[in-house]
Amino acid sequence: MSDVIAPREEFAAAALTRADDYARLYQESTQDPDAFWGRVAGRLDWNRAPTRIKDVSYDLADFHIRWYADGELNAAVNCVDRHLATRGDKVALIWEPDDPKQQARRITYRELHAEVCRLANALENLGVVKGDRVTLYLPMIPEAAYAMLACARIGAIHSVVFGGFSPDSIAGRIADCGSKLVITADEGLRGGKPIALKKNVDEALKKPGTQSVETVLVVRRTGATVDMQMPRDRWYDAVVEGQPATHQAQPMNAEDPLFILYTSGSTGKPKGVLHTTGGYLVYASYTHEQVFDLKDDDVYWCTADVGWVTGHSYLVYGPLANGATSLMFEGVPNYPDVSRFWEVIDKHQVTLFYTAPTAIRALMREGEAPVKKASRASLRVLGSVGEPINPEAWRWYYDVVGDGRCPVVDTWWQTETGGILITPLPGATDLKPGSATLPFFGIQPALVDANGQELEGAAEGNLVIKDSWPGQMRTVYGDDQRFIDTYFKTYPGRYFTGDGCRRDADGYYWITGRVDDVINVSGHRIGTAEVESALVAHPKVAEAAVVGFPHDIKGQGIYAYVTLNAGEQPDDDLRKELVAWVRKEIGPIASPDHLQWAPGLPKTRSGKIMRRILRKIAENQPDQLGDTSTLADPSVVQALLDERKVK
Ligand code: WTA
């Protein structure tokens, strides 16, 4: 039996939502979504309040997803301007630099307003108009938030590309959405090491398909010398200087796009997940408030990078729409040492802390002493996101980091969902270590078997969501059909998450991980197909197959099987060269942890690679290979097992 941790009475008494509220509101939200989400929409400021609330059909013959379709609002106004009257001097962003000896910054809502308006004016002067795409390739600096909000303010669609991606990956994302402008920095700084962001953009813009880019704005972060190609490249500080600190925001329809964010799927190129303005912002702000039990004096810290969806919904849009104080951390958990997280918590008196299981597991390995050096007395709620959290890491987070005092909210969601779908509410939900617990308001999860048959009661199957919620993605940018094919064809009439899941006898959900060809490495999604196509692009590689395997810290690691062209010699130098090649093609997060030479790959007679077998070999479970008799050449399996032993 797993243990159950009920909310402390003292916490529950002061919480925004308690157990009986949850039951009542959940019922209303699913029975009368129009009434429920109509009311919740009132938390935002609308230029024109929506009268149409939910307008959705998952029926393939009449497929559409619209929320608040006649409403008008501006996301930046909601995140900034509307707080000025009551919270102008409240700190909106705390910026903690990579180097703790450098000065942290505290940016008030009034200052944020001026920064966003100046940049919005500058972008308009550079010819950026409503509907244009703008690519952001930035480190974790306040300008990243200014840039997102300035785009939202003028109605431009931002596409943030994580600063760890390679020039090729940047180029692909620019080409896919046809960006007009790129905002980057001279360099990023992480763990004391510079990252050549501007240089990567320069290389990306030499690649085909990127000629849509007219202007590159460069933020000075480290002051490094970079190549400025006039008139294309402009210094950020020079273009915003002298711009008015006020700006008339563009009114947007609720269904106008807010941003594109590329994410990996099981096939092909990364998909441009498109989120729109009204539903996304309602959902991000409401979940942020409810899941973290947000109060006006909280100091909230989400450690995710702005390059991922968590950085969009729960570092920038959700917290700022709620008028909260949001901490942005430029650095890494182990620099200058492994106490950094806990020291930052004390330094800024953080009350709500949101991080990833991979960070928790890495820090757990360092023992309790680095945690105990800091008081952490300010903490109230701890959050987890990005991958399943194993019960052992959950307990350590709860017992050691939170001193057994702070509820842990294990939040399950996806880039596609815009916000959290399955999660405890800290004053309402009994916790079970390792379970994301229960659905958020309005969310109707179900488990289905391979035939799409819905499973009742305690069961394990594929996780689908039966009806829409306001934060749901609307399409794959430029490819509506791919959106429908990817998410609504497998189990018609339902949104397919790509995750496997178990439901226990109490109705609690336990996410078991991806059931498609996506690997979750340290909470980052990597498509096996992307790594494979990077490998086969190398002149010496004939074929490659990539699978995930369990990894103590990262959750999953990347295991690559490579067949070389005839005449090529497999050796350690080539192994290193191929790993470096993948880093260069995609980025460091996609580096294979293991690369095994494969004289042949296990294929069916029709030529399909049997990944199930490759997974078992990678997991070192040769006794669980199952039936190999359908293989075109069963002897390749033994050859792979022998090669694995040699390594
Ligand atoms: C996984 C990140 C278990 C899951 C917000 C999902 C989780 C993928 C959890 C989405 C969790 C995220 N427990 N698994 N609490 N949160 N995942 O798009 O496999 O980067 O499908 O969004 O991460 O990753 P994405």
TrEMBL record:
Post-translational modification: Acetylated. Deacetylation by the SIR2-homolog deacetylase activates the enzyme.
Annotated catalysed reactions: acetate + ATP + CoA = acetyl-CoA + AMP + diphosphate
Keywords from the named record: Acetylation, ATP-binding, Ligase, Magnesium, Metal-binding, Nucleotide-binding
Entry binding sites for ATP: G386, E387, P388, D410, T411, W412, W413, Q414, T415, D499, R514, R525
Residues the entry annotates as binding CoA: R190, G191, G192, K193, T310, N334, S522, R583
Gene Ontology annotations for the cellular component aspect, listed alphabetically: cytosol
Function statement: Catalyzes the conversion of acetate into acetyl-CoA (AcCoA), an essential intermediate at the junction of anabolic and catabolic pathways. AcsA undergoes a two-step reaction. In the first half reaction, AcsA combines acetate with ATP to form acetyl-adenylate (AcAMP) intermediate. In the second half reaction, it can then transfer the acetyl group from AcAMP to the sulfhydryl group of CoA, forming the product AcCoA.
PANTHER family in the cross-refs: ACETYL-COENZYME A SYNTHETASE (PTHR24095), ACETYL-COENZYME A SYNTHETASE 1 (PTHR24095:SF14)
Record's protein name: Acetyl-coenzyme A synthetase
Organism taxonomic ancestry: Bacteria, Pseudomonadati, Pseudomonadota, Gammaproteobacteria, Lysobacterales
This protein's encoding gene: acs
